[in-house]
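Hello,

Our lab assistant flagged a job as stuck in the queue for most of the afternoon. It eventually completed. Since we weren't sure the result was trustworthy after the delay, we are filing this so someone can double-check. Below is the sequence as submitted and the structure that was eventually returned. Let us know if re-running is recommended.
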Amino acid sequence: MNSQYYIGIMSGTSLDGVDAVLVDFNHASSLIHNYFYPYDDALRKALLSLHHSGYDELNRAALLSNHLSSLYAKAVHNLLKQAKLHPQEVAAIGCHGQTIRHCPEIDKKYTIQLVNAALLAELTQITVVADFRSRDIAAGGQGAPLVPAFHQARFGNVSTHRVIVNIGGIANITDLDPHSSTIGFDCGPGNILMDAWCQRHLAQHFDKDGQWAARGHVIPELLSTLSDDPFFACLPPKSTGRELFNLEWVQCRLHGNEKPEDVQATLLQLTIEAIVQSVHAHCSEVREIYVCGGGAQNTLLMRRLAEAFPGKRVAPTDQLGIAADWVEAFAFAWLGQQTMMRKPGNLPAVTGAKGERVLGAIYPA
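-- returned structure --
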């Protein structure tokens, strides 16, 4: 295959929808087109229900995998239409799938991302690379986060110490120190708790620009209680998800008389403090901090982050050439290419795997 067009598809913990990008790796790894397909409320509810064991879950998971794959295929067709390309001109699709379980603990060690990759290959007539996490877990790793390898390849600088902060449902950081090996890990909740609290009290999927949180005040006692969770004290490598950080996790730490906007302000501050403490603990000499993911669109969060790092550059990854909303999808286009070229896609120092591994399973067109 001579083509260097790749498609990356990401649907993350926030359950907001499908991010898809078309990348040309022939020309400075340029993002040519992007497409977002939002989840409706029924799909979001169905996916949330699979984060816990329940009635007929195998059947429900299989049907949702098929449904998601049809949405992924629609995103692919939209990208091809925009670019005026034929399926045979695309080398492969790198598809993360929708995580419904992530259990990296030693006594469990499994992860589940919903996608029917065979169906996606059939619907698009393009080779699909999927199931990126499993090989890393088989090698003793946590299977996440995987994007730091891409951050290193794309955003690393030989003279400047940078940190990439990805604030999706979960927040993770990548330390790009030109004088040391790259490290990265999940540091805590990103948007996941704020979004869930906003949905419960405002019937909105997210707090636009942090406007609701801005009307509240941080509750010091609650912030301290939330921050006491053992996850925050764990050393990397570490990863997490909805299994830990969910609305019930917040609810059981409340007295019940808190103002909803004050809780929202506290949840936003928790996300910030988890990032700040992780950076201070593991990458204190950083000079530049670049943010990607949905959190980069939260004006209040970005302002508070900048205030927490005086003297350091804090900006969205747009300033490094990739818009903050599309970095993860771009990463899976890159990971798909790594797999097709039989090159490793993981960083053992990040995931804890025994060594570098070629990730993913290939479903030929």
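-- support follow-up --
The delay was a queue issue, not a problem with the job. The result is valid. The radius of gyration is 20 Å. The mean pLDDT is 96.
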